[in-house]
Amino acid sequence: MTRFARDRAISTVVDVALFLLLVSAAVTTLALFLEDGDRAPTHAEADRTAETLASTTTSVEYSLRPVARTDDTGTFDDTDFDDEAYARVAHGPTAALLADAAVTNVRFDDRRLTAAGEEFEDAVDRTAMGVLQGATDDVHVVAVWTPHDGSSIEGRATAGRKPPSDADVSTATMTVASGVPPVDDDRITAAYERGGFEAAARPIATAIVDGYLPPSESRLALERQSVDRALVVYRYQRLADILGVDLDPEDGVVSRPNANVTAANEKLTDELAVLIAADLEAELASDVEDIQRRYPVDEHDGEIGEAIAETVSTGDVTITVRTWGREP
């Protein structure tokens, strides 16, 4: 496993930078493989392209101004930060930056968490294509993050152009660390045995909330007067609005005098666990029926818990590279 320094993001605790600090494990063991082992030699191009994205380190410059421009929480109503306050630089392997863009673009049941990824994804797209210039121009890269199979929560980022419908496409896939904490399988199984789907969903929800709103960094940001604080409050408010939670930014747990990150994250986790439990129950309905039919009653909970754990992927972003129309 290759690890990269925590200074991948030049600034700290500022929306996208919250992720970049967390993605200290950037590119994990590359699960590179061609979809069809019997492919012709020309299809090695996708494999080589994926390796280039994983091994080439680069920097991207972007702005978080879209967050303030599209703010619907009122967080930025009385602020007047200049362009420099929103300027950011991210540094790391190109594949890791694509993963960051995917996680930043997360949607909860198709509701976008933050506009932070607007310029960031575009900047990563341009950089990725620059890295590949001369190697292959016919490439399309898709990075996808989802906490578990069948989830209504998903982040996605793309680079390059889609292949023509009649193209002979080569595909390679790699796994990159998401920056959201992974969840231990045994913890999920034990939780299900204690309290069913909602209990099993809670450690997943905790990982997601702590990934997007890391307690230590968020606590420091809430104590400040700068754009850092506004960006973190905005993210809290956006997630709270999506989940139907009242955090009361004036006097509540994200207000300056009464800031309580532990309480804020617990409130969000409670509601997020309900959403995740519903997704898991729907996704695994047929598996549960199969387990109940095949196993003794006293083994049902353990088997279902293990089935849930197998679907969870909070710590990973899957990047799919497609190339076409070029001989090696």
Characterization of this structure:
This protein has two domains: 6-181 and 316-324, no CATH class; 185-311, no CATH class. 47% of the residues lie in helices and 16% in strands. It is an alpha+beta fold and 328 residues long. It has a seven-stranded antiparallel β-sheet with strand order 1-8-9-6-7-4-5. α7 (185-212) crosses α10 (261-283) and α7 runs parallel beside α12 (300-311). The two termini are 29 Å apart. It has twelve helices and nine strands. The chain has helices at residues 16-22, 44-55, 65-69, 83-86, 94-104, 117-132, 185-212, 215-222, 227-243, 261-283, 285-294, 300-311, and strands at residues 33-34, 57-63, 87-93, 107-108, 111-112, 139-145, 153-160, 169-177, 316-324. The model is unreliable at 1-41 (pLDDT under 50).
The helix tally amounts to 12
Going across the biggest sheet, name each strand in turn. 1-8-9-6-7-4-5
- How many domains in all? 2
- Mean pLDDT across all amino acids: 87
Main sheet characteristics: 7 strands, antiparallel
Low-confidence stretches: 1-41
Notable characteristics:
single chain, 328 residues, alpha+beta, 2 domains, seven-stranded antiparallel sheet, 12 helices, 9 strands, flat, disordered N terminus, transmembrane helix
